[in-house]
């Protein structure tokens, strides 16, 4: 009866130890909780576990109820000294559970007065093994207990084998986790290498068409994907602008039907859309099992974003997933910035050309134009002077005057052609074009065009540009209104919006900004005045007023 109860108790302990070992996948936590449970179930007081490699490497990984002599100074005695049990282990003489007649660590603690040993003098040492592979040592003991029976040692060996099996399992899990992490790390490294390869190409390009074709080709060839396309927004339409399929890249101009939900959903929601259905392919492109559409965004002031297009990708191998999408979104950021860089580069080039044309126009106006005008006047004067006394010379003078006037008209036409956009198209047309470029719907409410002197027109053009920029950046609306009117005393341009407006305090700060100051300065150059009125939730009105100009002889204007 006694043996049955003892056997049942041992089985219960083994079952409990097995359950404890399976509750944790962290090596040190698993061994610590298992050691504590073992000591509690066996009524033993103290224990510790070493995981051992080749001599002299070992690690003290768990302990419970160490005496003060061994626990002091962060358990230094358990980490620094080599003891008899470790020596036997490395010598190959410790293959089964044994009674250690004298613990070298406890002996040194007494000899060198390290502290209280709690009457612990002996312990059992049990090797931790699995299928013949040695992993470490389990040491257990109690104060006053000088030896363990053969039955106790055999039972402790059974427990040690369970622990050894759990150690091997945990190491295999850690190894698999490390391999998985290494695989993911390599995946990320390779992905970023491909992204870097693509971005190295695109940042060298200053031509939009070349960029669009290069992007789809380099992405497809770097990632080995069969289908890549870029879709851009043009007005209310979504147009496929470049394609890579069937091993080649090309520019295109293919409108996307409104029923293609995937692309239109990306534009609406400003986030990527993943599809595992072949029906989501783009027109004139082969269908792929797995596709994704990622927005190309331009970041504006106040952290707003405006989708300018979509990067479309298709493949047959697997669906696009979270980590991959994070990297692809970084790639689309590069593409968007490269496109914005080209747009700004083209705009800068346009300004350079316009400035040079304006400079040439001013030079021609100030030199050749004035000389031709003077020649025309001199010929007219000579004609009047000679018409009675020398009619032949008067006739030649008339011909010279006509030729000078024709040349003057041609010169004025040439100067007109060389003037800036605002001057050539007229201020209203130029401002409407500019508003469309930045996404503002501009309404012109006036019945007829008011003729403006050149300098005033240029000033109104620049002030109007800045006002529309402010609507775009701050008003939180995409609509604006403009009116230019003239009375006997002054010319006025009024630009208004129905956006969020300003409170008085913010209006005061706003009027001190560089943009507002620039508008005031341009108005002041025309002897004019710029006023701003705004109300929160109602909108903002900017009015610039300049004195009406009087025309001088020769077609010029003077304030």
Automatic annotation (TrEMBL):
**GO-annotated molecular function:** ATP binding; phosphorelay sensor kinase activity; protein dimerization activity
What does the record give as EC number?
A: 2.7.13.3
Record SMART domains: GAF
A Pfam family it matches: GAF
Provide the taxonomic classification: Bacteria, Bacillati, Bacillota, Bacilli, Bacillales
Annotated protein name in UniProt: histidine kinase
Q: Which reaction does it catalyse?
A: ATP + protein L-histidine = ADP + protein N-phospho-L-histidine
May I have one GO cellular component term? Answer: membrane
